[in-house]
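User
New here, explain this?
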Amino acid sequence: MMGKRKIVLLLILILLSGITVFSARMPHGNTSPEPGTGNLEQRIEDELDFEVEMETELIEARKDSIKRQLSLLEKQQKMYLQKKQDIESHIEEILNNVREEYQQKIDEKHQEMLKELKTFEDKKLQEVREKLLVKKEVFGSKLEKMVSRLKQETLNKLMGYRQDITNQYYPDILNYKLKLEIIELTPEEKEDYENKLREIEAKKERLFKQKEEELNQELQNRIKSLEKEFHSKLMAYQTLINQETRKQIEKKRTELETDFKDYVDRQQKLMEEAMELKLEENRDKSLKELSSIKKVLEKINQQYSNLKRELADLEKKGSEGGK
């Protein structure tokens, strides 16, 4: 634009130069030149400069106005965006409240399931302890009877052995006793018989003790064998009832977990229905507000874009005018 004005000014100056030349060639007489003709070029240039200056000021004023409008539009945009966010946050808060309500029910149900499973496990473990105690008492009673019978058998064997060795050495003992009681013996003979009698009694007692130790060792070995046998039976019984109990507990756990999963699925469905209902209750108002805000934001964005383009044009025009 400023370039065009310079061209127009140049044309006017050329025209004025032509007029001046033409006037110079005219015959001189009493006529005198028009007053102020020599200052015409200056007046035109001053007027054009004034116009350029005024246009520049108008451009700057318009630029300032656009910047203020842009600032206002940015504030309005932030305000409506915040309002939109507040509405969306309010809806999300409502949905979160619904989620928390149903999550609390699910958590409570889970705790109930764990409590029921714990109660069932404790009951079954107590049953195992009671069964083991009963079985241990039964095995203990049987073992006690068998040990008592073994001891009696050992005692009978020991007494039978005593009788055998008594019978074995009875003739010799009787012979020495009769000689000591009936026959008149010399002191040397009497002492000899008494020593032989003591030797026989000592030998008989030694054989009895040896047999007693032998039978007692055999008894202890048999008792240990019986104890080991009963302990193995008790452990086998314990393993069996532990396996059965574990199966029962796992079966109960599976049943409870299946029930809990079904409960969670039902609560999930109810929660979705409740959330949809809450959305329905707030949908009309919220959607209406969001739709209104969307339109306002679109209008603001359009105005913002227009003003930005206008500002860019003015910046370009100002830049060209300065050349």
